[in-house]
Task: structure prediction
Amino acid sequence: MIGRLKGTLLEKNAPWVLVDVQGVGYELQVPMSTLFNLPEINGICTLLTHLVVREDAHTLYGFQNIAEKNLFKTLIKVSGIGPRTALAILSSISTHDFLLAVQSQETARLVKIPGIGKKTAERLLLELKGQIVALGGTANIAEGMPLPIGNQSEIVQALCALGYSDKEATLACKGLPEGTSVTDGLKLALRNLSKG
Result:
């Protein structure tokens, strides 16, 4: 429904922020990683958003990048993980480090997050193991390959949908100019794959 907001930051009261968009004030909950990167009060900010509708409330969540938003949306689909816990996870660990923990099945890293016990950590690792690429990661993170973010994440997903492996898709995106559009990036990546 509301995918992105750009406006003037009026208030910051963790985890809540208030953003004025042409006279309408939107209250959003954001992870600490996003809060720390927001401008000063009265500065212009842009947030990617996700609306969670419950019987008793409609809550808007804001994120600084697509990787955080995608991880949040995936986390709240895991049984026993609600928006509050998902925000705690994003506030406590970077998207990259979380995906590394899932890739390497590190329960110990996840139980350090407030509100995550051993059983919840094990459930997260089990349910998310097969979703690393969809979240913008790669099965080869541990080998030091860069983690695709933003448009590169979408390009990797598109290549995987075309039948390429995680590794092939990630390698094809390596070296793409920052800020490349998804369409142009896909063309360049396919060209890279045809050379290989």
